[in-house]
Amino acid sequence: QVQLVESGGGLVQAGGSLRLSCIASGLTFSSYLMGWFRQAPGKEREFVATITRIGGSTYYADSVTGRFTISRDNAKNTLYLQMNSLTPEDTAVYYCAAHRKPYASSWRGPGDFGSWGQGTQVTVSS
Questions:
Q1: Which stretches of 1-67 are assigned E, i.e. beta strand?
Q2: If pLDDT is split at 50, 70 and 90, which confidence band does 15 have?
Q3: Separation between Cα atoms, residue 24 and residue 88, nearest integer Å
Q4: Which of 7, 28, 106, 112 is deepest in the core (most CB within 10 A)?
């Protein structure tokens, strides 16, 4: 049974930073493309960032490019999201997700991700 457990969310002032972590179990973590998504109140879940299995390729939503950094430590089965220069528009529940298929190197939408964490709340005050 795959489990993804996020942590690191909280309340931060605009301009501040947070580092999210996601610990994975029940899967061969290094075999999976991983991603971060977020969902703000009243909005659909949206893509934030993805990273390939070995971490060689990363991809970011335009809204976070230059401010957020996705990384992974396959030895620790852990996915990270470093978030800098946070704005109130970044307020959301953040989810980590694992691709449905091992060894996948691309994705087209949230439907390609088969395992999701419970989410961690990030609130940015102005």
A1: 3-7, 10-13, 18-25, 34-39, 46-51, 58-60
A2: very high
A3: 28
A4: 112
